[in-house]
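Lecture notes, continued. The same structure-token format from the folding unit now serves as the input rather than the output. Read the line below as a description of shape only.
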């Protein structure tokens, strides 16, 4: 399954919520992302079908190994670009928004090399 930026955003949001709250349900994700419950339900179905997500008997969203790997990769990029933009003088809110766009557009190779150059 091809995972688009929106799917990566859902996985990242689930990871962030799990770190804050532990168990995450669809309603929590809907509130966090400010999306409708039907939109979340559709996305959860697609992510389950793709092997990125499971839902347990209590309705909690659980990242699979693959889902966690993708979520952590996207979250790492998001944090890196947010820090870099803030360090360059960009307002924090704008830095967050722009980091979300950049994290999906850059290749893994370019990201790793850029990060190594700046942090190495």
């Amino acid at each position: 399954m091809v995972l688009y930026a929106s799917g990566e955003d859902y996985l990242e949001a689930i990871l962030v919520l799990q770190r804050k709250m532990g168990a995450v349900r669809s309603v929590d994700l809907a509130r966090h992302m400010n999306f409708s419950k039907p939109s979340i339900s559709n996305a959860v179905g697609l992510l389950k079908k793709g092997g990125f997500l499971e839902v347990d008997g209590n309705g909690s969203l659980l990242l699979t190994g693959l889902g966690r790997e993708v979520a952590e990769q996207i979250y790492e990029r998001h944090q890196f670009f947010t820090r870099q933009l803030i360090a360059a003088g960009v307002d924090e809110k704008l830095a967050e928004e722009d980091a979300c766009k950049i994290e999906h557009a850059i290749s893994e190779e370019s990201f790793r090399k850029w990060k190594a150059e700046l942090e190495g």
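Point for the exam: The chain has two domains: 5-69, 72-119.
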